[in-house]
Design goal:
The chain is of the alpha/beta class. The protein is built from 11 helices and 9 strands. Helices cover 38% and strands 13% of the residues. The strands form 2 sheets. It has a 7-stranded parallel sheet. The protein has a two-stranded antiparallel sheet with strand order 4-5. Strand 1, helix 2 and strand 2 form a beta-alpha-beta unit. Helix 1 packs parallel to helix 10 and helix 8 packs across helix 9. The chain starts with a helix and ends in a 27-residue tail after the last helix. Adenosine-2'-5'-diphosphate binds next to helix 10. GO terms for molecular function: oxidoreductase activity. InterPro entries: AKR, Aldo/ket_reductase_CS, NAD(P)_OxRdtase_dom_sf, NADP_OxRdtase_dom.
Length: 301
């Protein structure tokens, strides 16, 4: 979202009762979020501890010696002393080039750092908890074997995994694995990212998106509960104890997306929604040309 649109959206979200804010250094929106939060904190409308603030290490920082530089930069942009959760955004690394979060080679390939090592990287993540710069640490877009390797070597185990998860990509195996290992799962693109086609079109990329929200099963359950499709798929994940972070800049949709705590899906609804899983992944990072050759690319078949 553009800065002004985002500023209004964060205001509207806080007014609507949202208290979990998910951002990342690569989203380039930490400064705007920081500005709004600072307004709410300094006016006394909210205290720092009322907010659960999450940000992420950019792929250009995926090596032990870069972690502190990037978390401190995020804290400065967000105007806070600590975040509640700091995530390794992706398992693969890019070259660390100042001022370029997505560096590309002259041939148009993403400029990768193929020496990414999760064990040493994780030790640097743990050091940020020790330093008080984050309350907790986790990972995003990691696969099961990558998580397993961190768990085997961690002093502070990851407490959260953030992954693409929606009705068409329910990630049941990975969710079960996380449950066994006491890792909370957060679903990004929980609505199936309906705005992604428009976003990618700006870069001349055409993608075919599955329409999760208008799926007839979702719509029938929505009619039964007098809710809309978005509220049904969000409630489905929440009833499975999955954290959801739907994105909206529209105040009306923002309010709808948090208005999911006054009804319950019954077993039949849950079973029908569970049955929609089709393993359709929307975000596989292929927009980064050449990324599938990185040794830590997570979605190899
Ligand atoms: P907008 O910001 O105009 O509301 P996801 O979180 O799955 O990535 O989806 C984000 C996209 O979904 C955004 O494009 C957002 O558009 C759209 N969106 C958010 N809430 C709803 C809703 N309740 N119904 C339909 N589309 C929504």
């Amino acid at each position: 979202a553009k800065d002004e649109e985002l500023e209004q959206a964060v205001e509207a979200a806080l007014e609507a009762g949202y208290r979990h804010i998910d951002t990342a250094h690569v989203y380039e929106n930490e400064k705007v979020i920081g500005k709004v939060l600072n307004r709410w904190f300094s006016s006394g409308k909210l205290n720092r501890q009322d907010i659960f603030l999450v940000t992420k290490l950019p792929p250009g920082g995926n090596r032990a010696e870069s972690v502190q530089k990037y978390i401190k930069r995020s804290l400065e942009f967000l105007q806070v002393d600590y975040v509640d959760l700091y995530l390794v955004h992706v398992p693969f690394g890019f070259k660390d080039i100042e001022g370029d979060l997505h560096p590309v080679t002259p041939e148009g390939f993403i400029n990768m750092d193929t020496s990414t090592d999760h064990v040493t990287l994780w030790k640097a993540m743990e050091a940020q908890v020790d330093a008080g710069l984050t309350k907790a640490i986790g990972i995003s877009n990691f696969n099961k074997s990558q998580i397993q390797r961190i768990l085997q070597n961690a002093r502070i185990p990851p407490c959260n995994l953030q992954i693409e998860l929606h009705a068409y990509l329910q990630q049941k195996d990975l969710v079960e694995f996380c449950k066994k290992n006491k890792i909370v799962v957060t679903a990004y693109s929980p609505l199936g990212s309906p705005g992604l086609a428009k976003f990618m079109a700006q870069f001349g990329k055409k993608i075919d998106l599955p329409d999760v929200l208008n799926n007839p099963v979702v719509q029938a359950i929505a009619a039964k509960h007098n809710k809309n499709g978005a509220q049904i798929v969000l409630r489905h994940a929440v009833q499975k104890k999955i954290v959801v972070i739907p994105k909206s800049t529209n105040p009306q949709r923002l309010r709808q997306n948090i208005d999911i705590f006054d009804f319950e899906l019954d077993d039949e609804d849950m079973n029908q929604l569970n049955g929609l899983d089709q393993g359709i992944r929307i975000l596989d990072f292929s927009a980064f040309k050449g990324i599938k050759d990185h040794p830590e690319y997570p979605f190899k078949e």
